[in-house]
Amino acid sequence: MAIFELEPMKHHVLICNGGTCMRHEGEEVTQAIRDEIREQNAEAYIHTTRTRCNGRCHDAAVVIVYPHGDWYGQMTPAAGIQLVQKLVAGEKLKPHLFHTTNYKQEHV
Fold this sequence. Notes:
21% strand, Thioredoxin-like_sf
């Protein structure tokens, strides 16, 4: 899934596809998130990237959303769908949120 226009992008969703996350439905979470992004017609402003291990195996499956640096754990395909719906609505998926970095984007 290539992204050509960065200007409209609001969220970058990093989906752990490391070994432990893959044993905890990581592939299914990845596909559910990507399918829901298409369903919501949100491809222009929500981009996904598969990652390797993010180092939080006890929270598998892990999804990280930037620019806010929100870390979500124990994700399931159903939670992935809810996450995309919350992102579209400008909200957070609080039951699965275990850390936020509150990253502030500075314009350069």
